[in-house]
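Quick check before the chapter quiz. The format below is the same one you will see on the exam, so make sure you can read both the input and the output lines.
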Amino acid sequence: MLALLWTGSANAGLFVTPDSASTELALGTRLCGTTAGHTAYHFDHCPRYRSLVSRVSEDISLQQRKAREKLGGKPIDVFEQDWLRSSKTRFVLTGIIFRGDRQPFLSGACAEVRLVYRLAGKYQDEGTEQETYLPFTLLLAYEIPGKNRRCAKLAADSLDVKLQEKAWIEAITTAPFRVELNFLNLRVEAPILEKSAGYAEYFMRTLRPKGEDLVVVALENTPDVDRILKSATKKKAYLDWIERNLGEIASGTAHLPDDLCASHAVSVAPFGALRKINAPFSQLPLPNVDLKAHKKIATTNLLLRRLNGMSCQGCHQTRSDAGFHFLGKNLEKSFKFNRTTLPASAHFFSEQSWRQQVTESLAKGHEVPARPFPGNLDAVPSAGSVCTLSTNFEPAGCGDSLSCRHPWEADAPEVNVGYCQLKKAPIAGEPCLLGNWTNRGGMDDALEMVLNTDCFGRAQCLPQKIGFPGGLCAASCEDNLPNSVCHPVPALQKFTDCRAANRGLAKCFEQAATPVSLRACGIDMPCRPDYVCALREAGDETKGGACVPPYFLPQLNTRGHEF
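Here is the expected output.
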């Protein structure tokens, strides 16, 4: 079992969080073939980067225009296109990740090595230079060619922390790659959409190099719902594909044909796991097939949960950190209220043991084990793991020391899952607003028929209208609750007023924040959905983390950045 807290070491399992990037691994070198300047502004000489920015700018403009029309003039926070061209922003290599489990999806390749970059910006905060990440991830996925012996050697080297990074860098030298983008396009504050604790929209695309250009390609296993529903031919092809591939769907290795896939995807949070907009396969018909022979997908709901978990939306709204799975190390000059305890999501860490098993099998030339169910319904549970109370799912409890919490009932039964919590009460950070989740589409989704349950002792319910999805039980630090830590929480209006007075970001967090007792968190005790494990003390991972709404961290928000 992994330690309660991530130690912060550069090497851990099948990924590396580099302290710095060499010129060889800089985005300009990898994407453009030549060394670009240090900032995003200097990338303008690169045709591929210009192509990327042009495509992203079109996507941003279209989605933001739709949102403004929907809200009728109410304010939204947006990702600014100029951040991709600014002399104050740069791309930081946050991770190098080996993915041997990707072999079934790669034609003529045996694994992927992924370079993950995040956009970061520098700014002056009352005379002090500060840095923050921005909610924009660019990933280069290198498809490593080879068979049998070469694949086994690469897998074996990947299991050795002394050899892995060198082996990965050598493997990507001549390998083809694709570009994957995921970014927070826009956000609506909680007071405006109180019934859903706000609205955050993430945009995803995949591109491939074609000469000096980057061209859009289909998103893997993400159906184009509108095109399939409008075409009888495509609908039949889709239904036939499901019927022919039940075994591969059950094992998590099925590959939907590209001509049935979308060219972009939008995922939405909070309450991402309950939203039908994040479940594209649930919006399509299913064939009349007998599922009893396939245990993992033995019911319609299980089949849909497996399929949706294979899509881009479903994956990025499964136990993620505000729609992302790999955030990387904290920036050296990032102030303390903007830091996370862990470099990756609960989903990422929960998959590490399985990815290790896959790599060991590849190294020995053995058959690769089946992929875990989305959310690890069939894994050994820990606090924060997905669980279910529904008889439509496989039995997925939480063990003797945990209980399954199921606070929200969704109108889409295939997404009705809960999460494991510690049995010993009181527990800081538990939801206090119970109710029914209604899917109407995007901004109209809402938590309704809300019951405000009593929090324990002198704890109070922090409501959705100030940014706490599902409500959050919190107490004063003097109460010293079990499984809790003391951590400052900013008061929304005080913080807004402070920023309006042009005071610094760090100072406003200090002046507008009140210390409260929040849930403690780490690798073995992840936060519940829609919360992130924030670092308590800057630069000291041993102090542990506290579960807070992710949009309280500037690095996961589009609001208030000035570059």
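If your answer matched, good. Residues 1-11 have pLDDT under 50 and may be disordered.
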